[in-house]
Specification:
By secondary structure, the protein is an alpha/beta fold. It has 16 helices and eleven strands. The protein folds into three domains: about 140 residues, Rossmann fold (3-Layer(aba) Sandwich), CATH 3.40.50.720; about 130 residues, no CATH class; about 70 residues, RNA polymerase sigma factor, region 2, helix turn helix motif (Rna Polymerase Sigma Factor, Chain: A).
């Protein structure tokens, strides 16, 4: 008897993760089928994807693009919706087995909450959801019996290392970082860098926002907070190690001192495939790693004085409450400002720290508190640009 195909909803199908997820699905047409595709405003690519994968439903968040998408797809029998609310509503579809949340930043929070409440399996590529509201998300997953499978390469690595270790306590984890394009640089050399330099990541092909975050080490800071919630860890159990080769994606140290690590080439399709196919490891044609191509692995401590964002993230995590939400919102505005040449690379941590100091702290926030914190922080951050 043929195995039922998993029905996949991809929130953010036109972004880097979304496009690579569709490549994975194309490699396994006997296992996966696209049920939902969504995009923020890239109507052209969304139309191309819909024609190729023939989903049940398509959502374009930008309501001004609805008519273009509707006209292009009207003969295909695809249900077409627009607007932010449709992004939330679409994940409730009865056919959906897995929701891949690949939206950028805070925008992933509400759709992910809806998917959790619909008891859908979550393949989480939107780390900001856990950064902003980790406590709320964790409680909701417990209440609705929802599983989250991480798609970030580092968290996927930890998750893979923990398979079969349910009874063995974690002593600590090592989150590896490439160091980004400016590894080894100091504040003097970073003073006048441009966005074009920051967008040249040495190892990974990623979206614009996450590439800037990687250059500033904020991406690693967000991943530290995400790891806390995914694996129920304290700050002192999470150590960041710079590993420029990006082959060891992360490692787990157990209470007997033994360390398990997950290795592989820097290719996001592998963690995407693992999350979609779990618990099975699926055969693929991805390029294989060879030890002979990498005769030396190196490791360094991150430079927290030059790249202050990582320390700010640790501070926010230890403070708790709505502080990580403040950190995230301020960072999203800082990155947007940097990409628009409104703020220097080294000024981004100053803006974030100012917001963390000035926005009202809420020790036990609910969803409405997170929404209000996000809005207030964005207003202040834009004023500080």
């Amino acid at each position: 008897m043929a195995k039922k195909k998993k029905q996949i909803a991809i929130l953010g199908s036109t972004g880097s993760i979304g496009c690579q997820a569709l490549e994975v699905i194309s490699e396994h047409p006997d296992l996966f089928e696209v049920d939902v595709l969504t995009a923020n405003n890239n109507s052209k690519l969304l139309i191309e994807q819909a024609k190729k994968y023939n989903p049940n439903t398509v959502v374009i968040a930008d309501e001004k693009k609805y008519s273009v998408v509707n006209t292009a797809l009207s003969d295909l029998g695809i249900k077409i919706f627009s607007g932010e609310q449709s992004l939330e509503d679409v994940v409730e579809g009865e056919n959906i087995d897995v929701v891949l949340t690949a939206l950028v930043g805070y925008s992933g929070l509400k759709p992910t909450i809806k998917a959790i409440k619909s008891s859908k399996t979550i393949a989480l590529a939107n780390k900001e959801t856990l950064v902003v509201a980790g406590d709320l998300i964790t409680k909701l997953c417990q209440e609705y019996g929802t599983q989250i499978y991480p798609v970030d390469s580092e968290h996927s690595a930890i998750f893979q290392c923990l398979v079969g270790e349910a009874c063995n306590p974690i002593e600590k984890i090592y989150l590896t970082a490439s160091g980004g394009p400016f590894r080894g640089w100091n504040k003097t050399t970073l003073t006048n860098i441009k966005k074009e330099q920051a967008l040249k990541h040495p190892n990974w092909d990623m979206g614009v926002k996450i590439t800037i975050d990687s250059a500033s080490l904020m991406n690693k800071g967000l991943e530290v907070i995400e790891a806390k919630w995914l694996f129920d860890l304290k700050a002192e159990q999470i150590e960041v190690v710079v590993h420029p080769q990006s082959i060891i994606h992360s490692a787990v140290q157990f209470q007997d001192g033994s360390i398990k690590a997950q290795l592989g080439l820097p290719d996001m399709k592998l963690p995407i495939q693992y999350a979609l196919g779990f618990p099975d490891r699926l055969k693929n044609n991805f390029k294989r790693f060879s030890f002979m191509d990498y005769p030396g692995f190196t490791f360094e401590k991150p430079d927290l004085e030059t790249f202050r964002n990582l320390q700010l993230a640790y501070n926010a995590m230890e403070k708790g409450g709505n502080m990580p939400c403040i950190l995230n919102a301020a960072n999203e505005i800082a990155v947007a400002g940097f990409l628009q040449n409104k703020i220097g690379f080294l000024n981004m941590p100053d803006l974030i720290a100012d917001c963390m100091e000035k926005i009202t702290f809420v020790p036990n926030p609910n969803l409405e508190d997170y929404v209000a914190t996000n809005e207030a922080t964005r207003i202040l951050a834009n004023e500080l640009l």
